[in-house]
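Notes to self, UPF0173 metal-dependent hydrolase QO002_002470:
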Amino acid sequence: MKITWLGHSAFRIETAKARILIDPFFTGNPSFRDETRKDATAGLTHILLTHGHGDHVGETIAIARETGATVVANADLAAWLGSKGVSALEMGNTGGTIHLDGFSSTFVNALHSSAQITEDGVSHALGNANGLVLHFEDEPTLYHMGDTDIFSDMALINELHQPEIGLVPIGDRFTMGGAVAALACQRYFKFGTVIPCHYGSFPIVDQTPETFVSAMDGASTRIETPAIGANLTL
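result:
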């Protein structure tokens, strides 16, 4: 499995059968490098969305049109994207699993909100925020937490799915901060590898992963903080 962090909460996941973008926030993301866009969307098969905020939906509509990739999202968000012209959609909701070519995606809880303000100035609710657990045929199970705080039912997510790779928000203000994220990882999961995200983008979130990395000191989990656009093979 090849994982590329694209800044903020955006990741490209590449396996033998799938080329996946999660939360493709490119335009307006101060940490995204425009020259990586072509590589990020090359051969794309799926776009997975954790929730409906603009810094996660990002360029989903444009990329889906360009590539023909199937978009996976909660039912409300998928319906909204359909109204915007996205045709290849797989919709689900919390607790449900969608089986796709080479992997499955399960919607799990996240403690966050999910909405967008449209051109007319009206705020539209776009379903519940979720984390996504991806099970692959011959690859480690991966859990993108989405935007969330710590919650005790993370223990159930671990019991049900036993994810080996965690993509964990650490930037504070809109999600849990680094110390709390480290507590979540150590109390509720047995990750082999953790990649922190949702930091280093907007000025009002933490700019470095230092708090998280420090709080994980002594844990057996491998911590990876790749440069934006760098490939990590697991």
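- The chain has one domain: 2-110+127-228.
- The helical segments are 37-41, 54-57, 60-67, 75-83, 154-161, 178-188, 210-215.
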